[in-house]
Hints:
By secondary structure, this protein is mostly helical.
Amino acid sequence: MKRILTVFSGVLIAASALICSSCSKPESTSDQPAVSETQQTTASGTDQSPETPASTVSADGKVLYEQHCQVCHSMQAPAKTAPPIIGLSSRYRQVFGNRDEAVSAMVAFMKSPSAEKSSLGPNALNRFGLMPAMTLGDEELTSVAGWLWDQYDPEFDLDQCR
């Protein structure tokens, strides 16, 4: 019996570490120096300041979702261990009338999750609990939140998440 508890404890600790690490900011393993987002040097040595189209912000949000959120949040129902993205997008559109307010609320929640900051109902909180705080910077959190807002599907029925 003691051996079973020891093995179970080890598995539980490993699973907890995996879940917590999925929500942390990845460290760069590249030996290449970081390129400034506001200034790049071309092969000819001239500086260029790239424009950031809306699709780039959305793409960055998707990449961040894939790196940090996808382990818990599926895109569609059924839910994994957290509400699906399409359900969250629908809920935020239901609660907030505009993108800026919703993104601001999402960022505040992801930085420091609490029941008071949650836009989900009590049933969702009881079912999934609170997520761990995200260790991403404000710009990254804003990118993920904006991307999440853009995943709205008017055909999606929120009852699928219940």
